Each structure stands twice: as structure tokens, then as C-alpha cells.
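Deliverable D2.4 — example input (C-alpha cells):
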């Protein structure tokens, strides 16, 4: 199912026998919805940065650099790097197309000070070290192809670590794919699935993860269900965190052997997150999106954890979140998102 429904957000990674198995939806820690009711409202502070109207994602690096990922619908470059304070353009690169430095359809993510840009229609990624670029070091972007199907990938020890689209269990519907949570490519970023699964569950396994080598931790969080899993960097599952529960249970249906949601799209832990050595900040919606209410209609909760999955504090903001960055001192969040009226915004939120 390479390029399946929802534009098959790329990748299929290597499933090794020693990797932890997909587990049922029970956990070592249970979060009640009361943590949402008691969430601290954050007050937005406007930022004096005129981001392009074509911005898809926006990341703040070192409190002074704005990294903009633009849509492919405009003539401007797909990646632009600005001085946040002066607004001056420092670097830009990539246009839409099939050429060596062109991208058909991209997706971005930031970890540490590195932007990863994926061209998931052409199965390749490029890593952009923002520090080198902004200090004027000689740097030439190099794309590397991959062969792996997943909703999310990360560089990991010279390979790619990916969310396994065949890790899905639903007792009520009787749908059970006992794949490992993660799959791992070889050093050429290739992976060939050798296991056989009864159901095609790509469309119901949307999730993301962040890595801290300093803390020897990987935190996986699911957009499809209120679930967090904590691993060490040897991929041993250490703890699960479930909740807060969604107000309505997602219902599943089958089209052939393909599993789909039938009563709306669940939004639990969304893809936007940020972290430092001490804490992890995850965005949480806790609603089902339907034809009447989509993602941009919901407010967002931001849940703060340590790297062992212990819940610390919850916050609330009155709009959706597309991307999020943490200030250098860990005392503020930079949030790019969308107001309920459809206006894109960039705010700073003191914690």
C-alpha cells in the first residue's frame, strides 16, 4: 500500500524480532479528563514577525531564527530561514518539481536544530542543520531515498526508525495486527516487510515520536488514541500512559481489508510537540473531527511530561496548533497555528 489513502505519508521500516510488540490499550499510568478541566489558560503574546501566507510549519530556533516551511502552491522557495528579530531572509532553497533540488509534496519536522524535510511523493528526505546554515558554513543539501511505509520516520543510529502501520489492536471490533510499534530500516534506509497481516491499518495508526539520547528515551504518542509509550533507545518498552479518554469512541469499518474510521477522525495527541533535556510538551485535542467540526474548530491542550512519562502540568490555548517550539530557557512556547476563523497566527506563550 505504498501511497495509500491520505497521501500515504511515506516510509516502511524494518521490523526486527527483538523489537517490543504492539500492546493492548492499557497502561501503567492513566490520565483522567480532570487534567483538562484544570488546565492553566496561557496568555498569547504577539510576535513582530511577518511570516509568509504560504507557511505550512514554522519553527523557532535559539529564540532568534524562524524556520519556515512553505506550501508547494506558490512561487517562493519551500524552505526559508529568517532572522526572527529583523525579519531578514538568511537562506532559502527548494522549489516544487521533479528535479534534483525540487520537491513534489513535502512534510517537515524539527529535532534539535535540524529540519527534516520529506518529499513523500518521491520517497526521499533531506536534513538541514540550521546552525551550520545560519553561521554561513559551507553546506550543500543532499537528498537520500528511502523505502519504508509509515506515518512518521526519524534518523536513528545511521538508519531510519519508523512508526509501524501494522501495530493496531481493537478488541471491540476484533481487529488485531500484532506488529511491533517501531520498524527499523537498514543503513541504506530500506526496509522490506516480511510479516503477513490480515488487515491494512495504515489509516488508523497515525502517531509520532521524539528521541532524547541524553535521557536514553523515546516517547511515542498517538493521534488516533489517547496513548503514550515510553521506550529506551534500545527500543525496550518501559511504560505506557493512557488517557485522557475521548468523549466518544471512534468506530471502525472495513473496505475490503482496509480499516477506516466511520464516525469521525479521532484527534488525541497531535503531531506538534517540542522538548528540551528536562521536559516534553505534547499537544492534545481529545475530540472527534466530523463533517461539522474539523481540527481547526477545536481548542488545544498542551500537556507537560518528564522523559519517563510522568505528567507534570496541563495548559490550554484557544486555537489549533500546527507546530510548536520551546524557548532556550524553557519558560515560553512559540506556537504557530490557526484561529477558529481560519487566520494563521504565531504567538509566544509564557508558561
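Example output (designed residues):
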Amino acid at each position: 500500500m505504498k501511497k495509500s489513502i491520505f497521501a500515504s505519508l511515506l516510509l516502511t521500516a524494518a521490523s526486527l524480532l527483538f523489537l517490543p510488540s504492539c500492546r493492548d490499550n492499557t497502561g501503567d499510568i492513566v490520565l483522567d479528563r480532570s487534567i483538562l478541566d484544570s488546565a492553566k489558560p496561557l496568555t498569547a503574546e504577539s510576535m513582530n514577525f511577518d511570516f509568509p501566507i504560504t507557511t505550512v510549519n514554522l519553527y523557532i530556533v535559539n529564540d532568534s531564527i524562524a524556520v519556515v516551511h512553505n506550501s508547494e502552491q506558490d512561487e517562493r522557495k519551500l524552505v526559508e530561514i529568517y532572522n526572527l528579530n529583523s525579519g531578514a531572509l538568511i537562506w532559502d532553497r527548494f522549489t516544487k518539481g521533479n528535479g534534483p533540488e525540487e520537491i513534489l509534496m513535502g512534510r517537515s519536522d524539527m529535532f534539535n536544530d535540524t529540519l527534516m524535510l520529506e518529499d513523500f511523493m518521491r520517497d526521499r528526505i533531506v536534513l538541514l542543520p540550521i546552525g551550520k546554515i545560519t553561521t554561513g558554513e559551507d553546506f550543500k543539501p543532499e537528498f537520500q531515498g528511502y523505502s519504508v511505509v509509515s506515518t512518521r520516520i526519524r534518523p536513528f543510529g545511521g538508519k531510519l526508525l519508523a512508526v509501524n502501520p501494522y501495530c493496531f489492536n481493537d478488541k471491540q471490533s476484533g481487529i488485531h495486527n500484532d506488529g511491533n510499534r517501531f520498524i527499523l530500516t537498514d543503513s541504506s534506509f530500506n526496509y522490506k516487510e516480511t510479516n503477513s497481516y490480515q488487515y491494512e491499518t495504515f489509516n488508523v495508526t497515525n502517531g509520532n515520536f521524539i528521541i532524547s539520547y541524553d535521557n536514553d528515551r523515546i516517547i511515542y504518542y498517538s493521534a488516533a488514541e489517547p496513548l503514550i509509550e515510553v521506550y529506551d533507545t534500545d527500543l525496550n518498552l518501559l511504560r505506557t500512559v493512557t488517557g485522557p479518554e475521548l468523549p466518544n469512541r471512534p468506530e471502525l469499518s472495513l473496505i475490503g481489508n482496509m480499516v477506516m474510521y466511520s464516525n469521525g477522525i479521532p484527534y488525541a495527541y497531535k503531531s506538534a510537540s517540542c522538548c528540551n533535556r528536562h521536559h516534553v510538551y505534547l499537544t492534545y485535542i481529545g475530540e472527534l473531527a466530523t463533517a461539522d467540526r474539523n481540527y481547526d474548530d477545536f481548542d488545544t491542550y498542551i500537556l507537560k511530561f518528564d522523559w519517563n512519562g510522568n505528567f507534570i502540568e496541563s495548559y490550554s490555548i484557544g486555537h489549533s496548533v500546527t507546530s510548536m517550539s520551546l524557548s532556550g530557557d524553557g519558560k515560553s512556547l512559540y506556537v504557530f497555528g490557526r484561529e477558529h476563523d481560519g487566520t494563521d497566527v504565531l504567538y509566544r506563550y509564557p508558561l
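Confidence is low (pLDDT under 50) at residues 1-21.
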